[in-house]
Design goal:
disordered N terminus; 8-stranded parallel β-barrel; 42% helix; 15% strand; 557 residues; disordered C terminus
């Protein structure tokens, strides 16, 4: 007789007319049916599986008749059960799943609407856009998602604080209640103003913050600032300017700066390339430390982004204690993304090693880098060369003649002076102070012109400019390659079939299956190879297995 040594039966199972099936042939089917429990029982001919009958845990297993020893048990685990209940409750979500912001509207209104209607939440990619463009997007989102959650990105703009102020004021005026704060190294007045404005006590005396902040962080020193109350100095300054009241400042000192903190591991765009398996536990421990120190009645939730691209990675995030998961790179290859079909095709062909770091347009002079796709584009190499030339020379006409020729002919496609005139037009609308400085500082002028190439390279990718395909800047992390490997040979291999909600539900559903397989394995069940692994499935099939109802039709999601 097959036994489960060294484990003893954990109870007794009653068949109630539902005979068990051999484990090897039935386990995978049972694991996929996540809305029903899995019972692993022992018969004289070996271990078997059933999803019917009833089980009694504990006590002595008395076999006989329709009674069999219960060796292991996995309860139902629909995708909506994953994650932290407090996170889902405060945002009004069905699923602990976030479509993260990708700049220049790549996380589009269409994408945010689709996930919002499906019980998830998305952040519109406002970075890189002017306030008028962002307001247009907000108007559409508030119209298309009445009463449903959505967020918008507020990115730190160290070289243009006026833009950050304008966006924060816009969010307050439009009553945007959820903002993702990204790329911050320190807290700023506009961000604190947004967080604190309108804070009050309800009828029960509890502090209510109408404006929620979700901070994306990868460093402990930055996370500590978001997990602490807003700085007294900034609060005092805001009171002095009449932007908040003294009462709002007093209440703000008793709440954390952020409601949620996303541990941002190795991801596309701005990233510190941190490994998720070490970053998330560190952030959870810091959250616990800070919550105890400040006696928060509702501690901030900690989620994980960066590398979330397969069911196993999603399951691992939740197993480590993530309150929610955030996806980015993989959404950029979906049909709702605000980018070109050419980019979607390039992303769909990427492997995990097809990414690299390149100079960032917004923080070029500081040497900051972003993670981008290197397969099919010369952008990383050309951007690195521009930074090398910038650091080695004080002005453009000091460059060796051959290097000046390459920059003007191959990258700028015009003379340096012609490009400078175009660059001035860009900064005249966004940050005129940069022009004033550049007129007297030739090294800064060179930096702005080089930045024009870096900045427009992402625009060329988004618009699909065919003459500039070799210069596309496509923000991408290694998650893209992992996703492509997982969906290879399935309907999701083709980018035209990739819809954000379908991708998200596959990750959540697959994570639930993988988690149940892990539960059985931990109880000593010899889970066969491949059991617990989930191939990509169409959305209606997932809903059938989860007992759920499709929130949006596949054609609209």
């Amino acid at each position: 007789m097959t036994t489960l040594n060294p484990f003893k039966p954990i109870g007794c199972w009653h068949s109630e007319g539902s005979p068990p099936e051999p484990l090897a042939s039935a386990l995978q089917r049972a694991l996929l049916n996540v809305s029903r429990p899995v019972y692993v029982v022992e018969r004289p001919d070996g271990l078997c599986v059933s999803q019917g009958g009833t089980a009694a845990l504990g006590g002595q297993a008395q076999a006989g008749g329709d009674r069999l020893p219960l060796c292991a048990y996995a309860p139902p685990l629909p995708p909506e059960a994953l994650g932290e209940p407090a996170f889902k409750a405060k945002h009004g979500l069905r699923y602990a799943y976030v479509a993260g912001e990708m700049a220049n509207g790549i996380t589009s209104v269409r994408m945010v609407t689709a996930v919002g209607q499906a019980g998830m939440v998305g952040f519109f990619g406002a970075a890189g856009l002017m306030p008028a463009e962002v307001e247009t997007a907000l108007s559409r989102l508030q119209s298309e998602l009445p009463g449903l959650p959505f967020g918008v990105n507020l990115i730190h703009s160290p070289g243009n604080l006026e833009l950050e102020v304008a966006l924060a004021d816009l969010f307050l005026r439009r009553k945007v209640r959820l903002v993702s704060a990204s790329a911050y190294v320190d807290l700023t007045h506009p961000l604190v103003h947004y967080r604190v404005k309108g804070i009050h006590r309800d009828a029960d005396g509890c502090i209510v913050c109408p404006n929620r902040v979700a901070a994306k962080v990868s460093r402990v020193e930055v996370a500590r600032k978001f997990l602490a109350p807003p700085p007294e100095k900034i609060l005092g300054h805001l009171v002095g300017r009449g932007l908040i009241t003294a009462e709002e400042a007093t209440l703000a000192a008793m709440v954390p700066m952020a409601d949620d903190v996303t541990a941002e591991a190795d991801s596309g765009g701005h990233t510190d390339n941190r490994p998720a398996i070490t970053l998330l536990p560190t952030m959870l421990a810091l959250r616990n430390e800070m919550s105890a120190a400040h006696a928060y009645p509702r501690p901030p939730c900690v989620g994980l982004g960066g590398g979330i691209a397969t069911p196993e990675a999603t399951a691992a995030a939740f197993a480590m204690g993530a309150a929610y998961v955030v996806t980015g790179s993989i959404n950029q290859s979906c049909v709702e993304a605000g980018t070109s079909p050419a980019v979607c095709s390039m992303l769909a062909e990427a492997g995990q090693a097809d990414v690299t770091m390149a100079p960032a347009a917004d923080m070029f002079e500081l040497g900051v880098k972003v993670q981008v796709l290197k397969r099919g584009t010369m952008f990383p190499h050309r951007a690195a060369k521009l930074y090398e030339l910038y650091t080695a020379h004080d002005r453009f006409d000091q460059l060796p003649a051959r290097q000046r020729e390459i920059v003007e002919k191959d990258l700028l496609k015009c003379s340096f002076d012609e490009e400078w005139e175009q660059t001035k037009g860009f900064f005249r609308a966004r940050d005129p102070k940069q022009i004033e400085r550049a007129e007297t500082d030739p090294k800064h002028r060179m930096a702005l012109v080089f930045r024009s190439y870096l900045g427009r390279s992402s625009t060329w990718a988004i618009t699909g400019e065919p003459s500039r395909r070799i210069d596309y800047q496509i923000w991408c992390g290694p998650a893209m390659g992992a996703f492509n490997q997982w969906v290879k040979g399935s309907f999701l291999e083709k980018p035209e079939n990739r819809r954000t909600v379908t991708v998200g539900m596959n990750l959540l559903f697959g994570a639930a299956v993988a988690t149940r397989a892990a539960w059985l394995r931990a109880q000593g069940v010899p889970v066969p190879g491949g059991a617990g692994a989930t191939p990509p499935m169409e959305l209606p099939d997932i809903m059938r297995l989860t007992g759920g109802v499709t929130a949006v039709s596949p054609s609209s999601s």
